[in-house]
Design goal:
Blueprint lengths: L20 H12 L4 H11 L7 H15 L4 H9 L2 H15 L1 H16 L7 H14 L1 H4 L3 H18 L2 E3 L4 E2 L6 H9 L3 H6 L6
Helix pairs in contact: 1-3, 1-4, 2-3, 3-5, 4-5, 5-6
């Protein structure tokens, strides 16, 4: 079942996010153990499970991480925790796209296009054109400050690098992700084929 049924509004929350693979797995483990969202916050903060220096940094990251974990089900949580790291990387990327409309649209409209046409290079102008188009299409995006836009661009490039799609950040070289058939089939059966396609995956 697709958990998110409402259409997401554009949000600048990406400015405070990152790929956070290590932290995502910690949240997944607590979720599997039956902790509520409220208890997850309490335990992570009290025990400093992220091993951050400042509690404010923990609090800022908790909300997007809990939102991510709430978009995946028990099967995906088990894959994340028990299967090789490459499963977890895809699941995390999938959860981020399900929670952030702008990031999903960038993946779907820019990255997917590059990979599907075998034009495996991403330039800064590509994201500039993308953001300009979104500003023209959305009053919400149009109201974002230049500082917010710069930060969002930085986060997008950083996450693409961390997931392995952006193989060489300096050259802008893109790389196709390897998605295990079991994980691919499961996401398709959840009705979420479009997120795989946005990663550049051929789904038939």
């Amino acid at each position: 079942m697709n958990i998110l049924v409402r259409e997401l509004e554009y949000s600048a929350k990406l400015t405070g996010e990152s790929f956070l693979m290590y932290e995502f797995k910690i949240i997944a483990k607590l979720k599997k153990e039956g902790f509520s969202d409220k208890d997850i916050r309490r335990v992570v903060l009290e025990e400093n499970l992220f091993q951050y220096k400042f509690k404010s940094s923990i609090s800022r990251r908790l909300t997007p991480l809990i939102q991510r974990i709430n978009t995946i089900d028990d099967t995906l949580i088990n894959m994340l925790l028990e299967d090789p790291l490459e499963y977890g990387v895809i699941i995390n990327l999938y959860a981020i796209m399900k929670n952030d409309r702008l990031f999903f649209e960038f993946m779907n409209e820019v990255v997917r296009e590059r990979i599907s046409t075998n034009d495996l290079y991403l330039e800064k102008k590509d994201i500039n054109v993308f953001i300009t188009e979104k500003k023209e299409q959305s009053e919400i995006v149009d109201k974002w400050t230049d500082e917010t836009i710069v930060k969002i661009k930085q986060v997008i490039f950083k996450m693409l690098s961390e997931v392995g799609i952006l193989e060489d950040k300096k050259a802008g070289k893109l790389s196709r992700l390897i998605i295990q058939p079991e994980l691919k089939d499961y996401i398709i059966n959840r009705g979420d084929k479009k997120y795989l396609q946005a990663m550049g995956e051929y789904t038939g």
